[in-house]
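Progress note, project year one: complex with alpha-D-galactopyranose.
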Amino acid sequence: MKLMATSRIFIISVFILFTLTVNAQADSSDHIFEKLNNGLAKTPPMGWSSWNQFGVEINEQLIIETIDAMVNNGMKDAGYIYVNLDDGWQQDKGNRKNKPLDFDKEKFPRGIKYLADYAHENGMKLGIYSGPGQTTCAGYSGSEGYEKQDADMFASWGVDHLKYDSCCSHKDASKEELKEAFYKMSKPLIENPKDIVLHACHCGWQNIWQWAGDIGANHWRIGQDISDDFDYPENREGYYFDVLDMLDRGQGLEGYNKPGQWNDFDMLIVGLNGKSKELVGAGASNIEYRAHFSLWSILSSPLLIGTDVRNLDAYTLETLTNKEVIALNQDSLGIQAKTVRKEGNIHILAKPMSDDSWAVAMLNRGSETQVISVNWLDDLGLDWKETKVRDLWQHKDMGVFPNTYQDEVISHQVIMLRVYPKNH
Ligand code: GLA
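Model obtained:
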């Protein structure tokens, strides 16, 4: 009997050992990287990025004028702090192994550090762009093989944000290869004492939202590039997403958003009006741009405006600097709004706020005016008998409403509400 018991224990032990070995082998094919966290970007980054309007046609004067404009037109005050150079600041095109990475001396005669210092003197921050390949998307030399050197170089320049873009160099790469590529840059950035926010940009491929936060990224694109359209009938050129496509793409990803880690719905197109040097699209109306801004705000996406902010018309500036709408984006809970009802062209998104109020976006996706109503219990799950409603675009308290609030929403408009229990 004793012998039988011993041999059973032996067989069970062998089985456990076998199972462990098989699991270890499974793990080794899915290499686990040390978890990294830089502790930055507790609210979604806000600022400006050069790409959507200017493409690679950027230079020192543009950046200085942009910083000055944002300080003077109220954008800095509204929270837009980052001024980010996208692709095109580099000196050389071609493979990194033959072309060292440096700034273009004609475009940036006083260098990047000069601009970072200028930004900091004005209470702003400076961002830069590179990628894990031999070249970037626009063909400039990338960081592959020189990650630590480049991380230290960006830090020595005083840079505060890095968009690290793998979508061209690693288009068909496996999740493992991508994780490694981003890890190689994230690690030295964290080891350097300079705080640098990391945007891991991979066009929403390989479910980047599932793993980029674990290797120290602060935000990641959930889709390919946005186009300058609100609702274009097809997927433009098989690559670009309009505003409604991007909105839909982000549904179901709410659980990946948290302070320090953000789903990025791509840079804002507000005010581009079809004038982009790089994006396709004929532009959108003021109502549509305002709806887009409302959605990105309630979704807690980074708010990086891509238009020329030196000459904003009054309507566009009012859209971009609505502090009541921005407050939804910058709320400390860091929650991405969920779709609570989508019926035909009626689309309602909502999220709880840190002060126990709720934010609600009533979107009309169609071409005809619609009456949209929101019911506190059925749509938001709130048993508030009486609810105070504030309209964030009208900056107006609308009153106290039992059960339901309703309003007329014109085509492609978003009405933004913040609702409170009556005695809040
Ligand atoms: C990709 C990105 C864009 C921009 C360009 C730069 O297309 O998705 O946002 O950074 O590269 O070349």
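Confidence is low (pLDDT under 50) at residues 1-29.
The two ends are 73 Å apart (CA to CA).
No further modelling is planned for this target in the current period.
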